[in-house]
Amino acid sequence: MQYDVVVIGSGPGGYVSAIRCAQLGLKTAVIEKYNTFGGTCLNVGCIPSKALLDSSEHFHNAAHTFTTHGIELKDLVVNMPQMIARKNDVVAQNTAGITYLFKKNKIDTFEGLGSFVDKNTIKIKKTDGTEEQVTAKNVIIATGSKPTSLPFLPVDKKRIITSTEALNITEVPKHMVVIGGGVIGLELGSVYARLGTKVSVVEFMPSIIGTMDAGLGKELQRVLKKSLGMEFFMNHKVTGASVEGDVVTVTADNAKGEQVKFEADYCIVAVGRTAYTEGLGLENIGIKTEDRGNKIPVNEHLETSVAGVYAIGDVIKGAMLAHKAEDEGVYVAEHIVGQKPHINYNLIPGVVYTWPEVASVGYTEEQLKASGTKYKAGSFPFKASGRAKASMDTDGFVKVLADATTDEILGVHIIGPRAADMIAEAVVAMEFRASAEDIARICHAHPTYTEALKEAAMAATENRAIHI
């Protein structure tokens, strides 16, 4: 079969790219190795983890804050099988939605492992062992990533697990060790800490969420320790883990070089993700991945070294974010038909879906200092927000960084209630190169969480925040 575009992978980057290609009049097909669409994000990543985060947050609030609200409960218990079942239903609804969208946009789909025969021919190996081939003028590689494994820490998927298995535990563990203080580890650690599990985070670096503004990590660690009792062991190098019966023993060297041990019911290995390029047959068309992380090199148009073959999302450089992959998928589709799309990579927001949520866009304060950029900073704490007081969400702050001379917003960093949604206002403002005073002069509804962004902008402009 001859197509204008064949997309390998149906995650956020792949399915969005395929739909945009079809909208632009291109005959499009998608090859997916699994029997459901949506990739990691919809099946074992973003969507199921958010479902469990929401469920566990409801339980935590019922157990700890409902009495203050005048709501009294007794005999509160966690029904883990039902919680997992609800999560699975959310996943099923979302993956079914992708199937509908493919049909609506007349996109052909193939189940099997896609690999290059040549740059225009893709072989599809099906689960029953049969094969077929399709040809395409353009191919988009959108195969995503998989959890990074450590050679000295074998994952048995029972007690030493990855984020995938952590989504299907049907009991509330007594103790869980999370290796890695990044987004994935903290989100999944939060789920179980809210349900009553003792959670110990073991992190090699001196701070959690190390790629974000340092103030965010410091505040998040404080709040998670205070509200959920999570333990943090920073500057610890994990050296191994073993399983005996139902007990996992994790060994690590602390900052002094002393060996320490952790015994737990489960150990989640959450040390990042690695680009998934196995079995693609890249060698058949002369594409070499980069040594570190199996990344596929691309040019400014996301085209590989082979004309007509593109790569997007987790398999190329940059943050491994679903929304980055989506934007790249749209970019490639529009570039193929001759349009002039653009992506500002500095303005792709990052979010951590703990509670409080953490969201960030633009430059961090550390980056501005390192580059010698003269800037001014303004911040506003949620403890001074009327809306946050009403909802009992007073932890966190908003920080706005602006150019010292022009007042253009250079970065916005939020830890607090609904930060994941609030950051969109900052992204819009920065896409239009707004100044801090622009946000300060915009009327924000009262009482809302977003007033904190306005107040932080006012603080950055002339240190004239009203409510602090």
Automatic annotation (TrEMBL):
UniProt keyword list: Disulfide bond, FAD, Flavoprotein, NAD, Nucleotide-binding, Oxidoreductase, Redox-active center
Spell out the catalytic residues. H446 (proton acceptor)
Q: Is Transmembrane there in the keyword field?
A: no
PROSITE patterns hit by this protein? PYRIDINE_REDOX_1
- SUPFAM superfamilies linked to this entry: FAD/NAD(P)-binding domain (SSF51905), FAD/NAD-linked reductases, dimerisation (C-terminal) domain (SSF55424)
The organism's place on the tree of life at top rank:
Bacteria
Query: Could you say which residues bind FAD here?
Result: K50, G114, T143, G144, S145, D314, M320, L321, A322, H323
Annotated Gene Ontology cellular components are: cytoplasm
One GO biological-process annotation of the entry reads: 2-oxoglutarate metabolic process
The record ties this protein, via InterPro entries, to: Class-I_Pyr_Nuc-Dis_Oxidored, FAD/NAD-bd_sf, FAD/NAD-binding_dom, FAD/NAD-linked_Rdtase_dimer_sf, Lipoamide_DH, Pyr_nuc-diS_OxRdtase, Pyr_nucl-diS_OxRdtase_dimer, Pyr_OxRdtase_I_AS
Q: Where does NAD(+) bind?
A: G180, G181, G182, V183, I184, G185, L186, E187, E203, G272
- The EC code for this enzyme is 1.8.1.4
A Pfam family name for this chain? Pyr_redox_2
Q: Give the disulfide map.
A: C41-C46
Where does the record place the FAD/NAD(P)-binding domain?
A: 3-329
Leading EC class: oxidoreductase
What is catalyzed by this enzyme?
N(6)-[(R)-dihydrolipoyl]-L-lysyl-[protein] + NAD(+) = N(6)-[(R)-lipoyl]-L-lysyl-[protein] + NADH + H(+)
Keyword Flavoprotein included in the entry's annotation: yes
The cofactors required by this protein are: FAD
A single GO molecular-function term is: dihydrolipoyl dehydrogenase (NADH) activity
Every Pyridine nucleotide-disulphide oxidoreductase dimerisation domain range: 348-457
- Xref: NCBIfam families: lipoamide_DH (TIGR01350)
Could you share any additional remarks the record makes about this protein?
The active site is a redox-active disulfide bond.
Task: State the similarity comment.
Answer: Belongs to the class-I pyridine nucleotide-disulfide oxidoreductase family.
The identity of this protein, by name, is: Dihydrolipoyl dehydrogenase
Protein source organism = Pedobacter quisquiliarum
Gene symbol here is: lpdA1
